[in-house]
Amino acid sequence: MARVALFTHPRCLDHDPGDGSPERPARLEAILNRVAEEPGVSIVTAEPIVDLAPLRAVHPEAYLEYLAAVSRGGGGALLPDTAMNGATWDAVLAATGAVVSAVQHTVAGKGHAFAAVRPPGHHALRQEVMGFCFTANVVVAARAAQERGCARVLIVDWDVHHGNGTQALIEHDRTMRLVSLHQHPWYPGTGAESERGVGNVFNVPRPPGLEPERYVEDLWAAVREAVEGWTPELVIISAGYDSMHGDPLGGFTLEPDHYVTLTHRIREALPAVPILASLEGGYAPARLAEGVAATLGALA
C-alpha cells in the first residue's frame, strides 16, 4: 500500500466559532487522533501562506482585508451561524497553506492527498461568508492547480449540503466541472438539477432517508456523465461527512465503506488523474474521523 499525505496545521484547531456551533475544533482533533493510528498515512504540517495570492485568485482584496480585520479585532458573529474569533484569520491562512501544499504534492506526481482543514469552504461566496465558511478552499485549490498546469479540474462534492459557493465561483468556467450530491430540500436551498452553469454543473439533489446505495449510484452516474468526453487533470473532492448516517445536520445514510467505494471508482475510472480531498462538513466527530480514515485508506 502506498502512503497518502494528509496536510494540516495546528492553527486550524484555534478557530473557535463559540459555544453551540457544531463546527468546533473537536472535529479536527478527532480526525488527527484517528489517523495517527493509520500506517498508510503521512501527516504533513504545511506552512501557512504569507502571500495572499492564492486567496486573491478567488476573493477580492477588500474582502480578505475585512476578514483579517474582524479576526484581529477579536472576532464576532458575521452571520447567526458564522462567527470568527481572534485566531480565525490565522486558521484561514493555515488552511490555505495546507490545500495549496496538497495541490503541489499531487500535481508533482507524489500521490493523492487529503487536506484536513478548518474552517471549511464550500459555502463561501466571492465576497460573502456563509454556513461556517469564509474562503472557498476547493476553488482556491483548483486555481492553484491551474497555475501549475492542470488545465481541467473536476470537483466532486459529497457533503450533505449543496456547495453553493463552489458552484457560484465556477459555474461560468468551462475549464472546471462540479458534481454535487446533496440533500434537498435542505440548507442552503440551492442545487437544483436545472442549475447547469455553462453545462459544467451536475447537481444530484436527493431526499433524506434513502438506501445508501442509491446515493452512491446516483452520484457515480453524475460523475460518469461529467467526465464523458472530458478528462480532468485533477480531481478535488469536497469531502463532507455530514452525509453519514446519524449526522446531526443531515439525513443521508452513508457509512464509511461508501466513501471507499466512491473513491475506488474515481481511481479506477481516471487511473492517471491525481485526487485531492479537502475537508468540509461532518458534525459527529467520531463518525467524521471514521469517514476520513476510510477515504484515506481508499486513496492509499
Describe the structure in brief.
Helices cover 37% and strands 17% of the residues. By secondary structure, the protein is an alpha/beta fold.
CATH homologous superfamily classification: Histone deacetylase domain
By CATH reckoning, the class would read Alpha Beta
Main beta-sheet strand count, sense and barrel state: 8 strands, parallel
User: Roughly what fraction of the amino acids lie in strands?
Assistant: 15-25%
Gyration radius (Cα, Å) is 17 Å
Task: Identify the CATH architecture.
Answer: 3-Layer(aba) Sandwich
Q: What is the first-to-last residue Cα distance?
A: 6 Å
Biggest sheet, spatial arrangement of strands: 2-1-5-10-9-6-7-8
**Envelope shape:** globular
Class from secondary-structure proportions: alpha/beta
Number of beta strands: 10
Counting H and I runs of at least 4 residues, what is the number of helices? Answer: 9
Low-confidence stretches: none
Do you know the CATH topology?
Arginase, Chain A
Order of secondary-structure elements: EHEHHEEHEHEHEEHEHEH
Number of domains: 1
Work out the oligomeric state of the chains in this entry: single chain
Mean pLDDT: 97
* Helix share, percent: 25-40%
